[in-house]
Design a protein that fits this description.
single chain; mainly beta; Maltoporin, Chain A; 21-stranded mixed beta barrel; two-stranded antiparallel sheet; 28 strands; 1% helix; globular; TonB-dependent receptor; receptor; TonB-dep_rcpt-like; tonb box
């Protein structure tokens, strides 16, 4: 449920969301028998508020979010858990100011802060757990851009963020991230050249009962892209860049339990990528056809160890080479979009786990509005919108699980969804009804081994909103 009120120069919106699910769907085990999922229930509550002010070239936004979730943790179907539970609470907010006196100059600054709390407990396990994690984070970011000439635009930015992690099982850890970036855009005869550079310092401290650890990483991430926009229906582009990803605090310090644990020795991921292709746009249609190749060093990937306990590890080298195609069409009352991706992901000559070589997604929608006008009644009818979606995933390799010793090939699968949305004419309140079917063909599939996806499920939603707007 939402409410908003916008009368220039001020505006606000507030909302509340409640949800609950048993998630006791039927799944099929390796012997072909039908079984019921247990301990997978979930309840959630969320509330948000947003305020805005705009006057001349100034715009200010203030946003706050709070959420709480309680859920069961059923675990893998070959070794299910009836007692594991997890509770999460999150609070987040930011203040943002944008100053844009004209189209040649703008300055954007924002500050943000957030806190998360998580408790995981399983007192009936062979290795009982009752761990609490607390994470506090705050940061600041500023970006400025200037276009002194039609053929030149430059952008500068700086950011600082600090986070503190405190867990009952691993002690405290802190992370400080400082970064600066610069980018130029040179345009001439439809050719745009964009060199960019990001400099970053990452400092991490951990203090435990028996050990402490401090690391500092300095990173330079350059990027260069070139594109030509002289012919909109088919415009070539190319880009080259280098980047890195630091392991998350959960990846580093997740408490050691019966089936999972963190890895304090994780190193950051490093990636060098190149891409090229064609993109085009004509009237209501847009499309893209591209090729890419990413070389990664120290790729972070969750894998089971010799005792089949999952933990993140660094894969020495990995290469992802692929082709991608995208298409979208919007002609008012009808539209469709989709993409196809072929990716050859290899590490030491072997396929990376859980990465299908071929995947595809498609969606089509048809809108029917004011149908009573066909009968000259003069009464506005609700707007109807029909949707149909499809997701297809090729086969993938899965890590072995006890007592297996060899990787398992998981079969390809396709999932289909269908839905109907009804928007009633605006009145004192805005009302929308949504209903449909997920997994229309009741396909039994697993994206991770021993973690089945739900079969066919029906849903119905009611959305209520109030508010008004003014110039």
């Amino acid at each position: 449920a939402t409410h908003e009120n916008r009368v220039a120069p001020l505006g606000y919106s507030v909302g509340l969301a409640l949800d609950a699910a048993e998630n006791d769907f039927i799944w099929t085990d390796d012997s072909g028998a039908a079984r019921t999922m247990t301990n997978a229930d979930r309840t959630g509550t969320a509330a948000f508020a947003k305020g805005s002010w705009r006057e001349g070239g100034n715009r200010v936004n203030l946003f706050g979010l709070w959420s709480e979730t309680r859920r069961g943790v059923p675990g893998p179907t070959d070794l299910p858990s009836e007692s594991a539970r997890r509770d999460d609470r999150q609070a987040f907010g930011y203040l943002r100011h944008t100053f844009e006196p004209d189209e040649r100059l703008w300055l954007d600054t924002h500050v943000h802060a957030g806190r998360t709390w998580q408790n995981y407990r399983d007192t009936a396990s062979l290795t009982p757990a009752n761990d609490t994690h607390r994470l506090a984070a705050a940061g600041f970011q500023a970006d400025a851009a200037c276009a002194p000439a039609r053929w030149l635009t430059f952008q500068l930015g700086a950011e600082a963020a600090q986070s503190r992690f405190d867990g009952t099982a691993i002690g405290a850890a802190e992370r400080l991230n400082l970064a600066g970036m610069g980018q130029l855009c040179l345009e001439w005869l439809g050719i745009a050249v964009r060199p960019a550079l990001r400099l970053e310092r990452l400092r991490q401290d951990r203090r435990g009962d028996n050990a402490s650890d401090r690391r500092t990483t300095d990173v330079a991430s350059p990027k260069l892209s070139v594109s030509w926009t002289g012919f909109a229906p088919a415009a070539p582009y190319a880009a080259f860049g280098r980047s890195f990803r630091a392991p998350t605090l959960n990846e580093l310090y997740w408490p050691a339990g019966e089936w999972t644990r963190g890895n304090p020795q994780l190193r950051p991921e490093w990636a060098t990528g190149v891409e090229a292709g064609l993109r085009g746009r004509h009237r209501g249609a847009s499309w893209l056809l591209g090729w890419y190749r990413n070389s990664l060093a120290d790729l972070i990937q969750w894998q089971p160890d010799d005792s089949f306990r999952w933990r993140p590890v660094n894969v020495a080298e990995a290469t992802l080479t692929g082709l991608e195609a995208e298409f979208a069409l919007d002609i008012g009352r009808f539209g469709l979009d989709g993409n196809v991706n072929w990716c050859r992901a290899r590490a030491s000559g072997e396929r990376l786990r859980y990465r299908p070589e071929l995947s595809a997604r498609g969606r089509a929608w048809l809108g029917i509005g004011d149908i009573t006008r066909l009968f000259s009644t003069g009464v506005a009818s609700p707007d109807f919108r029909l949707t149909l979606g499809a997701d297809w995933s090729g086969d993938r390799l899965a890590d072995p699980a006890w007592p297996d010793t060899l990787p398992v090939r998981m079969p390809a699968f396709a999932l289909f969804d269908a839905g109907l949305e009804i928007d009633f004419p605006p009145a004192a309140a805005r009302i929308a009804l949504l209903a449909g079917v997920r997994n229309l063909t009741d396909t039994r599939a697993e994206t991770m081994r021993h973690y089945p996806t739900p079969g066919r499920s029906w849903y119905a939603e009611l959305k209520l909103g109030t508010g008004r707007s003014g110039s």
